[in-house]
From TrEMBL:
Residues 8-160 form the N-acetyltransferase domain. Keywords: Transferase. SUPFAM superfamilies: Acyl-CoA N-acyltransferases (Nat). InterPro entries: Acyl_CoA_acyltransferase, GNAT_dom. Pfam families: Acetyltransf_10. This is Acetyltransferase (GNAT) family protein. The lineage of its organism: Bacteria, Bacillati, Actinomycetota, Actinomycetes, Streptosporangiales. It comes from Allonocardiopsis opalescens. GO terms for molecular function: acyltransferase activity, transferring groups other than amino-acyl groups. PROSITE patterns: GNAT (PS51186).
Length: 167
């Protein structure tokens, strides 16, 4: 019988979590950098102080905890009626085990509480990031456009309502 990964607890990230978030973020985004042949993607060059400052300035930041270990994080920055989702990161040994899904599932309530004026969640990811695209689409994000950044990267823009309309 296969062992199941322990459940994670999703909680608000605090400025003091910046160092642990950076560690998970760098580990998680190495594969993305390799996929695009670019070691200077934003999640890899961001500093702990920049993460701390983003949280202090009002970014909605969530962390996934397995006991005392931080195994994932995500941020969303309110901007008017939209909230830009970024830096969804899961420790490599926990990828594929539902941590990213748990963070995305908790995000709409956290955004609604922190930024009640926000109507939409927006995100972008690279065109080669098939797992990311599948994950976001599974949470109701729909593609709104593509933007060619250079020869090796096209950003795929996606959007969904913070609170989907009742059926």
């Amino acid at each position: 019988m296969a062992a199941t990964a322990p459940a994670v607890v999703i909680a608000a990230a605090e400025p003091g979590d910046a160092g642990e978030i950076l560690t998970v973020q760098r580990a998680a985004f190495v594969a993305e950098a390799q996929l695009y042949g670019d070691p200077f993607i934003a999640p890899l060059v961001e500093s702990a102080e920049q993460i701390r400052a983003a949280i202090e300035r009002g970014a909605v930041a969530l962390k996934a905890l397995d006991g005392h270990r931080l195994v994932g994080a995500v941020r969303a920055l309110p901007a008017g009626r939209s909230c830009l989702v970024s830096r969804l990161a899961v420790a490599p040994d926990r990828q594929g085990g539902g941590v990213g899904r748990a963070l995305l599932a908790a995000l709409p309530d956290a955004v609604a509480a922190a930024a009640p004026e926000a109507e939409d969640l927006v995100v972008h990811t690279g065109h080669l990031s098939a797992e990311d695209l599948r994950l976001y689409r599974g949470f109701g994000f729909a593609e709104t456009g593509r933007e060619r950044m250079d020869d090796h990267l096209t950003l795929v823009h996606l959007r969904r309502a913070v609170r989907p309309a009742p059926a």
